[in-house]
Write a structure and sequence with these properties.
The chain is mainly β and about 70 residues long. It contains no helices and 5 strands. Helix content is about 0%, strand content about 25%.
């Protein structure tokens, strides 16, 4: 059986950046935040109430304001 590697970073069109594994995400103030889950969603729309983590706010934005 052949094992395939999974990418560490996936950009979801119109949505978050997914990080697989352990990473440190820096917020706008330069403070590092360690990931604690196997897969973590990071906000790319800058509207999340739990920034730098995605809370799904991008879904309520008009398409032109969603991340590319």
């Amino acid at each position: 059986m052949r094992c395939f590697e999974h990418p560490d970073v996936i950009l979801c069109p119109g949505g978050p950046m997914l990080l697989r594994g352990q990473h440190a995400v820096e917020d706008a103030d330069g403070l590092p935040h360690e990931t604690t889950r196997p897969v973590t969603a990071v906000c790319r729309c800058d509207k999340s109430a739990s920034y730098p983590w995605c809370d799904g706010t991008h879904k309520s934005l008009p398409p032109r304001l969603r991340p590319a």
